[in-house]
């Protein structure tokens, strides 16, 4: 989250994060509670609620504070909170997943994916196209990886139960729906990655893992993953059997 470091609420949350890093969870919670108590408006309350949600003892309370955070961001509704939304929806998804409500979790993973792929975010590349992978650096990568993992884990959830609780079904900009990797192709790629991990082939892993872990199912994701696999294949440093299998994966219909 990008926040004004001079705000008292932000300073308290910064101290709370430091306490977290030092293993002082109770001190961190007290600092986040202080931030909530002094919040002067919805923006500051949104920030404090985000951190308080991480220190609740039950899944229900975690969900309640994440919902509070999301509600406050919706009330702010300006540029100060636009970049918060991938994390806010991701946290809602995780909370519902912990409660076993996988369809609602999947809905919020989709919402998070929608915001990550928001054409208003990211940078332009040299061709004038939006580069959503270079948005927010490592924190952005962490969000994207978590969203992609959540989408895969909840893909088989039944969406019917969502309709009565949420009315804003997500639609990705420029796409009718996400197109995740099919199970067979995903398994083949994971097998190759496992073999590269086993022998510490860092070059192959470094090229392919970001594209695989961050695959949300957009056309840009498909192109990025295929390009990464192509680069490994073109380098020809793999054993012959892996080189052949990688070529077959690249030629698979789902990646064309």
Verbal overview:
The protein is an all-alpha fold. 64% of the residues lie in helices and 2% in strands. The protein contains 12 helices and 2 strands; from the N terminus they run αααααααββααααα. A two-stranded antiparallel sheet has the order 1-2. Helix 1 runs antiparallel to helix 2 (25-38), helix 3 (42-52) packs antiparallel against helix 4 (59-76) and helix 7 (102-116) runs antiparallel to helix 8. The radius of gyration is 20 Å and the shape is elongated. The relative contact order is 0.07. The model is unreliable at 121-135 and 171-176 (pLDDT under 50).
Give the secondary structure arrangement, pairings included.
Blueprint: H1 8-21, H2 25-38, H3 42-52, H4 59-76, H5 79-82, H6 85-98, H7 102-116, E1 123-124, E2 130-131, H8 137-153, H9 183-198, H10 202-213, H11 219-235, H12 240-251
Antiparallel strand pairs: 1-2
Concise synopsis of the structure shown:
This is Tetratricopeptide repeat protein. The chain is an all-alpha fold.
Structural class: mainly alpha
What does the radius of gyration come to? Answer: 20 Å
With strands numbered from the N-terminus, the spatial order across the biggest sheet is 1-2
How far apart, in Å, are the first and last alpha carbons?
Answer: 36 Å
Mean pLDDT: 86
Label the overall shape: elongated
Helical percentage: 55-70%
Q: Encode the helix/strand succession as letters.
A: HHHHHHHEEHHHHH
| Beta-strand share of residues | under 5%
Residue windows where pLDDT falls under 50 for at least 5 positions? 121-135, 171-176
Q: How does the major sheet shape up?
A: 2 strands, antiparallel
Task: Tell me the total number of β-strands.
Answer: 2
Number of helices: 12
InterPro entries: TPR-like_helical_dom_sf
Protein name: Tetratricopeptide repeat protein
């Amino acid at each position: 989250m990008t926040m004004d470091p001079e705000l008292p609420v932000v300073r308290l949350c910064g101290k709370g994060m430091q306490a977290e890093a030092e293993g002082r969870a109770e001190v961190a919670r007290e600092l986040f509670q202080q931030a909530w108590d002094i919040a002067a408006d919805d923006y500051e309350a949104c920030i404090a609620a985000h951190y308080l949600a991480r220190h609740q003892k039950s899944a229900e309370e975690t969900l309640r504070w994440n919902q509070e955070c999301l509600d406050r961001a919706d009330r702010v509704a300006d540029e100060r909170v636009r970049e918060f939304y991938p994390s806010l929806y991701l946290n809602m998804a995780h909370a519902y997943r912990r409660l076993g409500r996988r369809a609602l979790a999947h809905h919020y993973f989709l919402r998070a994916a929608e915001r990550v792929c928001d054409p208003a975010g990211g940078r332009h590349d040299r061709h004038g196209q939006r580069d959503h992978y270079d948005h927010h650096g490592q924190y952005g990568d962490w969000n994207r990886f978590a969203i992609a993992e959540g989408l895969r884990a909840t893909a088989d959830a039944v969406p019917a139960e969502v309709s009565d609780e949420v009315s804003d079904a997500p639609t990705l900009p420029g796409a009718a729906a996400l197109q995740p990797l099919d199970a067979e192709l995903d398994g083949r790629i994971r097998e190759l990655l496992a073999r590269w991990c086993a022998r510490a082939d860092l070059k192959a892993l470094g090229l392919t893992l970001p594209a695989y872990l961050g695959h949300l199912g957009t056309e840009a994701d498909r192109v990025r993953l295929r390009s990464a696999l192509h680069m490994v294949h073109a380098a020809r440093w793999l054993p012959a059997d892996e080189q052949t299998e990688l070529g077959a994966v690249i030629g698979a219909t789902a990646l064309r």
